[in-house]
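fold-stage: in
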Amino acid sequence: MNEVYAVLDIGSASIELLVGEIINSNLHVLFSKKVPSHGVKKGIIEDENLLVNDIKGVVQEANDFLDGEIKAVGLTIPTIRSKLYQSNSSVSLSDHDKISKDDIVRGLKLSTKFKKSHEEEVVCVIPVRFNGDFGISQVPPIGEASRNLIIDTLIITSQKQILYPYIMAVEKAGLEIMDICINAFACAKEAFDAVYLQEGALIIDMGYKTSTISFYKDGYLKYLTVCSVGGYNLTRAIAQHLQISMNQAETYKVKYGSLDYTVGQEDIIHTTELPDGRKDYTQKDFAGILEEAAVDMLNVIKEKMGVIDNGQHYETLIVGGGGELELLDKVAGRVLEGPVRVYRPDIIGIRDMAFVSSVGMIFYMSDRAKYLGPYETSVVLPDISNTMAVRFKGLTKVKDTKEKTGRFSRLLDTFFGEEE
């Protein structure tokens, strides 16, 4: 039976819904849609009703297209105010017992037992490597004989005030949540292979008003930061130079967005009436405006990247809808003084930088199902052979809190409550 997953990626500028089927470790897209996002600003939900309506609208469109029903989704949330922890745990086994999925789940639970602030909630518990009598492995050693199992883990937390509203909005839209991940790590699951994760690489996820910088090495997500620049800066530069509205400037950016001075050099794309006469803006002028704004934006990002500068020039990938600008990788390589490439999924139907996180989330969930057990039904399709009807195993156990009530409380307990 093939795996079918629905994933919702909620951002400040857009919402991506992706429904995909895993066939022989490859993703087959069943439905994809990117719609404008309302009610979210710089990763924080400011108007829940607007967001809920957006989610309902895109899900209904998917249901109509698929002639099915999306019941539950994997959710990626903004990286803002996330924290990283390296942890580990040790699970004792009977003399050379074979390691089971339950042993791995038990080890992951134990690794969450560390001190964190009351404002934080665990979002992801990710195994990095496994140690035992079998040696060291980066894949779950299910079926291997060992007297104990040591698991090194990456723990990612989010602020409750950021996380809870996202969960509530998705539930109010009538959906269950199968799993959650921050979009920085979801992007890495799609864009990086094991070599990148070990030897070191960076991802710049360019959003509308913010960009996330994440650094990976030795299998861990080591560094994470957010800076207040993105596609908005490019749109604003166009609006200011051409003296037009932001909406019109965004239209121009999408249509003529290129840093290539040689494309349609003298083609006039806009004329502005000035007190001393008319000013014609050509495609070449437009490229110059965008390059100046892009360099300013990249210099802000470079300053943030300086924290991890140890003399090495790690390869950097640019993802995210805010980075959809022809030749941006060339300009970025010059400013950041290292190898840079723009990354988009090479999958029919979603060759769009905005879908990197969604694709990564599907592979993230598919990998986790191998050692945590299968998820609940995500999508019900007319052809029963394509319907995923499996069970989700959480990492955690119920723990009461006055902050959460009803079905929302049960969901959070499933994901984040600590074992007693």
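fold-stage: in (second)
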Amino acid sequence: MKAIVCEKFAPLDELQYKEIDAPVAGPGMVVLDVKAAGVNYPDGLMVQGLYQMKPPFPFVPGSEVAGVVSAVGEGVTRVKTGDRVIGFTGLGGYAEQVACAANNILPLPDSIPDEEAASLTTAHATAHHALKQRANIQPGETLVVTGAAGGTGLAAVQIGKAMGAKVIAVCSTQEKLDVARDNGADVLINYTEQDLKTELKQLNDGKGVDVVYECVGGDTFDACTRCMAWNGRLLIIGFASGRIPEFPVNLALVKGYSVVGVFWGSFTAHQPADFAENMRELIQWYEEGKVKVVVDEVVPLENTKDALEKVMGRRVKGKMTLKP
């Protein structure tokens, strides 16, 4: 089968599109024929050796797929060959086939196209977990989403609205803000034209921000730390700007807010029942029209480098999807 292979940590253009052995369905595993694979920012970090997880070489990146079950391993009874499913694979998704733990797949309704289903797992599931389990966001609270036109940022805008929050989208261009507005954002802030700290401090009747879904890091994170409301929750999602900020802990002490890490991959391992329930709720919300996957572009598998460069360059509005 064909796959994208990382032979060593290196720039994106050293990824190889090549023939490798097809996976087999071991005990508790299934093999999926991949119909579409989601592209995520951590994938680009991982193949360059910049992510916290460093797999042994060679490896195939890609953590989320939509596909059809083509083989079932010993002990697997919850699915059968021919079933359409969403799979969280961890690795291996950028390929024509992938082996996946049976516990990490969910039935895929016919109402959800492959290209959208493949991107429903990581971005939307991260936002859902962050706002539900980590922030416990409540109706009427203010939610600021930085990088609000990216895959997980846009998901947070949608899910925040579904959970009853007032959503403030923070982006670098008007074009991106328009996308966030079309997905439910109530207030738009262009941080290249407006002073972010000043704008955030004015929210919530001048009391600051209840919840921040912070994807950017760098100067954006620094501004958010100064604008939190009492009992606020500053959610750490990622560092798309490239600078991992340092946090002056006295701010949390004086202002009485929490800084909360969000690592969805660990959540799925530590709380599998909550993960499964979250995914069922997300799929229900999708079918009810409360959330949707905005696909920026569908790219052939052999052009993975181009898709990753677009994601890493923060030029994506929504999600990039690979098609084997």
